[in-house]
Write a structure and sequence with these properties.
heterodimer; A: mainly beta; seven-stranded mixed β-sheet; four-stranded antiparallel β-sheet; globular; B: mainly beta; about 0% helix
Chain lengths: ~110, ~120
């Protein structure tokens, strides 16, 4: 069983469209994250949720809206897609405290906006 | 703010060569330090970690020692293999408000190992 799974793996869409990426973890973790990886491989955190509650929101445009229906799911909805949104988006999860443990990452969703 | 700086890649080596990827950090307090690896087309996986000064993390022949005096966590391997070709990320775990943590990553270093 995949620990952190994201769908879809690839997403090609036109500017101005609205799209969603889904993430599910079966590890029983309390905390989930969305990271964005740009074309130079730089990883930046976007959001973090703990038990459906927003913990981190890192200066992300309002067009990005995370939704956590339960602690095992964290979906990312993007409105009015722009060319600059093209990137690989990674979902991750961890136990509540990261200091002595690791985050588990999904395989990523490659979003291409044309 | 807290940050992680890694040496720029790509690093290109022949099989069985020695590897060092430099990583230094800036942080308040004493963060935990991690190396993550990303193989082509995959997500990130934890390679090793160290949670306090002088700790040495090790896994799959890779090692890194948490050096508080030099704020460094360099990744080393004595003999690399073609299968080690990947992007390597140094990261620190920083406590934010409410006692939660977040990972701050370096820019990543691509390693290419040739037979």
């Amino acid at each position: 069983d995949t620990a952190v799974s994201q769908t879809p793996k690839y997403l090609v869409t036109q500017m101005g469209n609205d799209k969603s990426i889904k993430c599910e973890q079966n590890l029983g973790h309390d905390t989930m994250y969305w990271y964005k990886q740009d074309s130079k491989k730089f990883l930046k955190i976007m959001f973090s949720y703990n038990n459906k509650e927003l913990i981190i929101n890192e200066t992300v445009p309002n067009r990005f809206s995370p939704k956590s229906p339960d602690k095992a799911h964290l979906n990312l909805h993007i409105n009015s897609l722009e060319l600059g949104d093209s990137a690989v988006y990674f979902c991750a999860s961890s136990p509540l405290r990261l200091m002595n443990t690791e985050a588990f990452f999904g395989q990523g969703t490659r979003l291409t906006v044309v | 703010g807290d940050s992680v700086t890694q040496m720029e890649g790509p690093v290109t080596l022949s099989e069985e060569a020695c590897l060092t990827i430099n990583c230094t950090y800036t942080a308040t307090g004493y963060p935990s330090l991690f190396w993550y690896v990303q193989y082509p087309g995959e997500g990130l996986q934890l390679l090793l970690k160290a949670t306090k000064a002088d700790d040495k993390g090790s896994n799959k022949g890779f090692e890194a020692t948490y050096r508080k005096e030099t704020t460094s966590f360099h990744l080393e391997k004595g003999s690399v293999q073609v299968s080690d070709s990947a992007v390597y990320f140094c990261a620190l775990s920083r406590v934010i408000s409410g006692g939660y943590n977040k990972l701050i990553f370096g820019a990543g270093t691509r390693l290419a190992v040739h037979p």
